[in-house]
Write a structure and sequence with these properties.
The two termini are 14 Å apart. Helix 2 packs parallel to helix 3. The longest helix is centred in the middle third of the chain and has 25 residues. The protein has one domain: TIM Barrel. The chain contains nine helices and eight strands. By secondary structure, the chain is of the alpha/beta class. Strands 1-2-3-4-5-6-7-8 form an eight-stranded parallel sheet. The protein is 39% helix and 16% strand. Helix 5 links the parallel strand 5 and strand 6. The model has no long low-confidence stretch (mean pLDDT 94).
């Protein structure tokens, strides 16, 4: 059993063959969590999870780049729902209602993303504050419902670490791309780190070697970050290549790695 803890089969990239892909995953003992990026994709994730007795779960949240701050123009994601990628505010009650579904195992993805950012100092300060306020609301919702968080962080690890310091949170920093020092700080907070196809592109081997297996989760972030030689459009089956790579890096028996990371997912998401 392999657990892809971060996928987006709920995105429009899978509109034509979504059920077929999910059946293939379950037939191959691959479970996955479809992660919401806005209210629309969160609803799709929940609807999908409700169709299956086990093996398909949902997380709901508003991705930081989909908060319409009016301070920066974000390139529309071709894989997500057209014309619905950004929201003017976080509909707390709307997300809360979704999150109370028994198939929802986490809040997110949420976090900080400075990839697209304003160029002036004043706008940048406001932009970062808006993202922090959005993140705070996700943390509040997760605490209210006793759910873990799925954190997204791009070009902002120091700020996310500062934000999380002295806050009691459970969760995973997905698609980790930071330094070993930052990794250790997250682990000291009791968080997990998620690794996907990005490990084939960035120099993360030494970090993966040092991180205890008890704090590692496997993921794909599909339809993105397809491993070398895999399909152009990634899917949860691509997690097999991530498993192989992490096994080689940590010099572990593949069955042991799969078993321990699967149990990590069950523990964090209370499945």
């Amino acid at each position: 059993m392999i657990f892809d803890t971060h996928s987006h089969v709920n995105f429009k990239a899978f509109n034509d063959d979504r059920d077929k892909i999910i059946k293939e995953c379950l037939d191959n003992n691959i479970w996955h969590i479809n992660v919401g990026s806005n209210l629309t994709t969160s609803k799709v994730a929940v609807d999908l999870a409700q169709k299956y007795e086990k093996g398909v779960y949902a997380s709901v949240g508003l991705h930081p780049i989909h908060l319409d701050t009016t301070l920066v123009k974000v390139k529309k994601d071709e894989h997500e729902e057209e014309n619905l990628s950004q929201e003017a505010f976080f509909d707390y009650e709307g997300y809360k209602k979704l999150a109370q579904n028994k198939n929802v195992v986490a809040i997110g993805e949420t976090g900080l993303d400075y990839y697209w950012k304003p160029k002036t100092t004043k706008k940048l300060v406001d932009f970062k504050e808006n993202q922090r306020e959005l993140l705070e609301k996700h943390v509040q919702l997760a605490n209210e419902l006793n759910l873990p968080l799925i954190f997204h962080c791009r070009m902002a690890h120091d700020d996310l670490i500062e934000f999380l310091t002295n806050r009691k949170v459970k969760g995973v920093v997905h698609c980790f791309t930071g330094t070993i020092g930052q990794a250790k700080k997250y682990i000291d907070m009791g968080l997990y780190l998620g690794f996907n196809g990005i490990i084939f592109k960035l120099a993360l081997d030494e970090i993966i070697k040092e991180i205890p297996i008890e704090r590692i989760l496997l993921e794909t972030d599909c339809p993105y970050l397809s491993p070398p030689g895999y399909k152009e459009r990634n899917d949860p089956m691509g997690v097999k290549l991530v498993v192989k790579k992490v096994t080689e890096i940590k010099n572990m028996d593949i069955e042991e790695l799969v078993s321990k990371t699967f149990q990590n997912a069950l523990n964090l998401f209370k499945i």
